[in-house]
Amino acid sequence: MTEDTQEPRPSRQLWFTRRGGEVHGPFPASLIRRYVLVGRLQDNDEVSLDRMYWAPIRDHAELTPELVRQAEGDEEARQRLMAARLREDERRDEDRRGARGHGFEAPERRGVERRQPEPDWMVRHRSLKTRTLREGYPRGSSYRFVLVLVVLALGVLSVLAHRYASRPAVSSPKCSAPPAPGVDWSYCSLEGLHLARVDLTRANLRSANLRGVDLAGANLFGTNLAYASLGTADLHNADLSYAQLLGAGLGGADLRDTDLSHANLGYADLRGARIQGAKLAGARLDQAIWTDGRVCADGSRGECR
User: Fold this and answer.
1) How far out from the chain centre does Cα 3 lie?
2) Which positions of the chain have pLDDT values less than 50?
3) What is the pLDDT of residue 76?
4) Which pLDDT value is given to residue 166?
5) What's the pLDDT score for residue 301?
6) pLDDT at position 299, please?
7) Structural domain contains residue 107
8) What pLDDT is attached to residue 31?
9) Strand 22-28 relative to strand 14-19: parallel, antiparallel, unpaired?
10) What's the pLDDT at 250?
11) What is the span of the domain harbouring residue 290?
């Protein structure tokens, strides 16, 4: 199977969003990325593939546009992000659920308004743009006066955008804790660490960044690795029996002779993983992306069907 035929597979994954207990969706990943770009979804809004296990958007690199990640600590990137958001935002500030003047209601907008709340600076920008388009551009000295006001308004919006986008990085001392059974490394960045043969029984590594980590021979029995990034990790001969690997990224990982019996691999991405000799008895593979790019059927147990 060629790479071209494998690439579209992840688009089958549909994501639910949650904010303040209100759930929306499901949406394809491309739409989630656009909502993040224009600010309708924030990095602390939660997403889920199955409405059971939720994680903040910031823990899913594939759902966060590169420009948004760069804007975290780069003023120039932050300005580019604001400009990109203004370009992407082509909606008017009028309610679009009904097609006014045409006598019908647009079917995609019936019912409750589905748009996520947006930053105030973007709402004000859209309102100014709509009013200008509706009323037309003035001429003469009035035009110059309005132009000055627009320039000043854009300056204020730039300051607001900077304040809105700036978020202090959150660090936690738990990420410095030594490896041990039950350790809480959830959401920690542990990329490239050497943890061969450590005992992490029933540890919490949910949404952790474990790309390239050496976990060969490690004891991960019952460990929570839901949504963890384990791309190219060495899990050769590790014990992952009864582990929670829902939505985990395992692309290119070494899973040879790994014990995955009764593990939950639902929605996990196993493309390119080496899985020779792995034990999969009782393992859940619902909607997992298999090593060759196939999407496993719901109810797959012990093998990808």
Assistant:
1) 23
2) 1-11, 90-117, 132-133, 137-138, 161-171
3) 65
4) 38
5) 96
6) 93
7) no
8) 86
9) antiparallel
10) 94
11) 171-305
pLDDT score of 92: 41
Q: How many domains does the chain have?
A: 1
Q: Which amino acid is at 162?
A: H
287, part of any domain: yes
- The residue written with tokens 């037309």 in the block is 136
pLDDT at 38: 76
pTM: 0.50
Q: Is 175 part of any domain?
A: yes
| CATH (domain of 201) | 2.160.20
Q: Which residues have CB under 8 Å from 230's CB, separation 6+? A: 210, 211, 213, 248, 249, 250, 253
Question: Residues 218, 200: contact at Cβ < 8 Å?
Answer: yes
- Residue 26 covered by a domain: no
